[in-house]
Automatic annotation (TrEMBL):
Superkingdom of origin organism: Bacteria
Keyword annotations of the record: Cobalt, Metal-binding
Molecular functions (GO terms): cobalamin binding; metal ion binding; methionine synthase activity
Gene Ontology cellular-component annotations: cytosol
Domain B12-binding: 91-220
Official protein name in the record: Methylmalonyl-CoA mutase cobalamin-binding domain/chain
UniProt record similarity statement: Belongs to the methylamine corrinoid protein family.
Length: 220
């Protein structure tokens, strides 16, 4: 098996959500001397982008996205420390968490995988994250974007509480705020003062990139 076979296999097996095969091919690629960033940018990321495109066309659904994301996550466990050693550049830092009162994390985790696959450094704060923890993380990590996830209509008001906490801490202007989750709408995101909203993991990555490029263009 040559390098092209490895890359094609990584693409195909990630698309199929075959985690064990993706992990095996990742290991074999490293044994062959394939650079971690080559496997990431030439196979894994394109596969996840195709998953997102198929989801948007209605050819894939959430289960297919999840298994593809998990397959890639297994490869990232191996590649992440190697990528750090090679100094592979991050396109931006994203702090993510499910809001206080909410323990749902499947959607959040899928978004995290997709963001990481797209080149973001992701700091996941987990679930039940109170406003003060988000403030603390923004102070500590200086992210480009902070994301609030909510699955319950009863926890959606925490978006506004989190944004108010950032305002009170003098940090609101320093970070892009994105919100999402099953019951969330663009209208609600606008009402609470978020900068961006995404209905699913695929559009979350695209929106995050758009917002980041817009902010950097304004600064430069």
């Amino acid at each position: 098996m040559n390098e092209q076979d490895i890359l094609r296999g990584l693409y195909d097996e990630t698309l199929a959500g075959n985690g064990p095969a993706v992990l095996d091919l990742t290991d074999r690629g490293l044994e062959l001397g394939l650079a971690p960033e080559t496997m990431l940018f030439d196979a894994l990321i394109p596969a996840l982008e195709e998953v997102g495109a198929r989801f948007e066309r209605g050819d894939f659904f959430v289960p297919e996205m999840l298994i593809a994301g998990r397959a890639m996550a297994g490869a990232m466990e191996v590649l992440r420390p190697l990528l750090a050693q090679t100094g592979a550049s991050s396109i931006g830092t994203f702090v993510m968490g499910t809001v206080k009162g909410d323990v749902h994390d499947i959607g959040k985790n899928l978004v995290n995988i997709m963001l990481e696959g797209a080149g973001f450094t992701v700091i996941d704060l987990g679930v039940q994250v109170p406003p003060e923890r988000f403030v603390e993380a923004v102070r500590e990590h200086r992210p480009d974007i902070v994301g609030f996830s909510a699955f319950l209509t009863t926890t959606m008001p925490m978006f506004k509480a989190n944004i108010n906490a950032l305002v009170k801490a003098g940090l609101r202007d320093q970070v892009i705020v994105m919100v999402g989750g099953a019951p969330v709408t663009q209208e609600y995101a606008d009402a609470v003062g978020a900068d961006g909203y995404a209905a699913d993991a695929s559009s979350a990555v695209r929106r995050a990139k758009e917002l980041l490029e817009r902010r950097r263009a304004l600064v430069s």
